[in-house]
Each structure stands twice: as structure tokens, then as C-alpha cells.
Amino acid sequence: MDFSSKLLENAVYEMSQLPGIGKRTALRLVLHLLKQPGEQTERLSNALLHLRNDIKFCENCHNISDVALCEICANPKRDRSLVCVVEDIRDVMAIENTSQYRGLYHVLGGKISPMEGVGPQDLTIASLVEKTKKGEVKELIFALSSTMEGDTTNFYIYKQLKGLDVSTSTIARGIAVGDELEYADEVTLGRSILNRIPFEGSLKAN
Amino acid sequence: MDFSSKLLENAVYEMSQLPGIGKRTALRLVLHLLKQPGEQTERLSNALLHLRNDIKFCENCHNISDVALCEICANPKRDRSLVCVVEDIRDVMAIENTSQYRGLYHVLGGKISPMEGVGPQDLTIASLVEKTKKGEVKELIFALSSTMEGDTTNFYIYKQLKGLDVSTSTIARGIAVGDELEYADEVTLGRSILNRIPFEGSLKAN
């Protein structure tokens, strides 16, 4: 694209560095900001800068938090013997929305992915192992996405925990509630048959 | 969404004010910035602020420009008697890309749209009429999108020009080059038949 203004070109370029935002979308967004009052651009820029510069992570679970110990970790009603291992804050928000979980979390900050240059040392795995060694944690629930990267990460952590007195589990995979069997993919349907649960147990979940 | 951090919540909120960016996308973009080096967020914020605060518009055609008279208006090889009326800079860029146009532009900054609260006084229509009154412009080409708002705007400008010695035209609407007739919508196909051009004339265009 051939811009008539270096300022515009630069803003569009920086905007298009965001994932899923192409040059055309970036131009549309930037032109939108130009039509709005200047305060909107100022608020956006300041919000991004503040977040990036002043961001803190909970010292226990590594979730994004404005205080040293996040609300969940600081809550005395939470079950400290149960830790759910997730990739990032979005997973924490999703699980919290279900109101079904009363344990704590451990936010890894990603998955092991040689393709993207993410190794175990880039994640908070060492901190998770340390925490488990202290003995308070009785069960780790792996809740990473079931991709090759997710499975690799689960297995890596599992091996690190060898010899420690902690049980591990992964969240159940199966047909979503309300979904038709005929439209489910074979892997999911196959797993949901292999991992079937006693009918009486399934009644309790409702 | 229930965020664990006010800083994060604020950044996501401001990001989701952009058109087409929902809360979920905004969260994804903001989390991406958190994973990148801080300089990327700084560059983005600064580029947006610079653009918004230092933006200038060409005093002749009102296109976005870093100098008082934009490159196109300042080019002595351009035909100053021909002015193409467009909505915004994206249209200028699209027409310039064709390398088929050697006249000048006039950027309205939008279309008349009572629904969105955009009246004639919000656009650069008065400046276009003034420019035309000076007599240098011989032809105005309306190149707004053929929506109700575009047609209204064309007609409003047309009325303002009453009594002035200037001819007006609109860009041709028809079947796109390479498109199959059977897939064209009826309005476009109908118009392309009504506005057919002599076959010999069509040879010159290639």
C-alpha cells in the first residue's frame, strides 16, 4: 500500500503487527480512531502502556494480578490441595465461569512448542514442581488443550513429578452437553466411549 | 468477563471500542502484546498518539497528508480540471493503484447519513463547491459507493453546483472484469445493460 502520510503508514504498520490484523483491517481501525475524539486514542494508548509496564503476576499461581497474591490464591475458602494447571488467564476465566471448581490454579504461560521456540524454561513449570514438593498439593488437574503441544507439556510435567506424593488427572474429553452424536468427530466420540462413567455417577453431576 | 486485574480489564475495554473487535478478540490481542517485548506496545501506542495528535489534511483535497499540499495536488503533471469525489483515503489509494487516473481528488470524509448523524456540514462539501466556483474544475467524477447514503450525497452536491459551469459524471457500474454473468446480481447486470457502451469504445480501454 502506498500511503500519503508517514504517520498513517507507521500507525497502520504497528497495528498490523497484532495477530489476525492484516494491513486492510489495520487501516480501517486507524481511520476509525481518526474520526473519534482524540481522547479515545489517548485512553487506548495509555491503557496498553500501563498494562505492559505495570503488569504483575500472582506469586503463587502466576496469573495476571494487580496485587502480589491474586484474589483466588488469597481466598481462604479455596481448596489448596487441588491445583488446576492451565495455559493462560483465559482458561482461568473460563473455568471460574462454570462455578464448579473450588481449588487453585497454576498458569503456565503457554505450552511447550519447539516450533514456536517455547521450551520448558519459558513456562512456570519449575515453580509448579517446587510448589508440589512442599507437600500441600494432593492433586494436579491438567487442563491444557488436547493438542500435540498440550500433551507434550502434560507429559513433561508428569515426568518432573516422579517420586512426589501427588495424584494427577486430566479434564474429561467427550461429546459436549446438548451436542448430537452424529456430528461429533471420531476421536472425541471414541474417547467418550472408552472413558465412559457409571450411569449413577453421571446423575450426581446434574 | 471477570478479570483478575483492573489494568487488564481497562486495556481490553479500550481495545474492544475499535470497530469489529469484540471482548474476546480484544483479550487475545492484549495478551499477545503482553507476551511480546515491551517495545512493541510502546511503538504501537506512540504511533497511534502521534498520528492522532499530529495528523494533517491537504488544504486542497482534504486527504490525509504530512504536508500542507499533498503529493497528488502538488504534482504539476496532474490534470487540475478533473476532480474525483471520494469518501476517504482508502478510495484514493484504490484508484491510484489502477494507474488509470491523472486528475485530482476531493476527499469528503464520509457520506451524508442521518442515521449516523452525519450531515453535509460534517463533510468537506462547502470547500468542494468553493473550489468549483473558482472555475478551474471542468468535470467532477462522483466515486462514492452506490448505497442510499452515497446516492444522497451525490445528489446533494449536484444541487449545490446548480448554475456552475462544471460537468458531472459517476464511475461506471457493471459486471466486474472476469466475472460470470450468471452470478451477477440483477441490479448490477440490469445497469450494465442500460449503460452499455459502443463496442469500438470498449476496445480502447484494453
Task: Show the helix and strand layout.
The structure is a homodimer of 206-residue chains.
Chain A: H1 6-15, H2 23-35, H3 38-54, H4 71-74, E1 79-86, H5 89-98, E2 103-107, H6 125-133, E3 139-142, H7 148-160, E4 167-170, H8 186-194, H9 199-204
Parallel strand pairs in A: 1-2, 1-3, 3-4
Helix pairs in contact in A: 1-2
Task: Characterise the protein shown here.
The structure is a homodimer of 206-residue chains. Chain A has 206 residues and is of the alpha/beta class. Chain A folds into two domains: 6-54, Orthogonal Bundle (Helicase, Ruva Protein, domain 3), CATH 1.10.8.420; 71-171, Dna Topoisomerase Vi A Subunit, Chain: A, domain 2. Chain A has helices at 6-15, 23-35, 38-54, 71-74, 89-98, 125-133, 148-160, 186-194, 199-204; strands at residues 79-86, 103-107, 139-142, 167-170. In chain A, strands 2-1-3-4 form a four-stranded parallel beta sheet. In chain A, helix 7 links the parallel strand 3 and strand 4. The radius of gyration of chain A is 22 Å and the shape is globular. The mean pLDDT of chain A is 91. Chains A and B meet through helix 1, helix 2, helix 3 and helix 5 of A and helix 1, helix 2, helix 3 and helix 5 of B. Chains A, B: A zinc finger (C4-type) spans 58-73. Chains A, B: Belongs to the RecR family. Chains A, B: Pfam families: RecR_C (PF21175), RecR_HhH (PF21176), RecR_ZnF (PF02132), Toprim_4 (PF13662). Chains A, B: This is Recombination protein RecR. Chains A, B: May play a role in DNA repair. It seems to be involved in an RecBC-independent recombinational process of DNA repair. It may act with RecF and RecO.
